[in-house]
Amino acid sequence: MLCTLSTVAIGLLTTAAATPGFASQEPGKFHHQFAADVPAGTAALMAATQRPIAQSALEEKTEAAAWKDKPAWAVITTQDLNIPAEVQRYMAKRAHAHSIEVRASHSVAVSQPKTVAGVIEKAARATR
Q1: What is the pLDDT of residue 62?
Q2: Could you tell me if 38 and 67 are in contact, meaning their C-beta atoms sit under 8 angstroms apart?
């Protein structure tokens, strides 16, 4: 599944010619692909101000996963076109995460901030 995640993520990004080794979402595709449930003006601003991601961040193996010995929470976004819900469910299950499913795009923190904040608050209360 991690290979699937990397393959999906890399396939959706375009290489930023000015910055070798980095990639970003094409601005013209951003609203549909990354933030379909966000107002068009907000998505346009997000597209214009996005920062490129290092391609190595999508391919690099971790040496130690925090979820192996720490509690985890997950917001699974069922309308996410970047990371399929099936992959999110797999990762949440593997991490034994307390998870919720939300009909949202990859930009759930922008489209449904109260939902995301609620999950963060639950995690904070549970780990005091």
Answers
A1: 85
A2: no
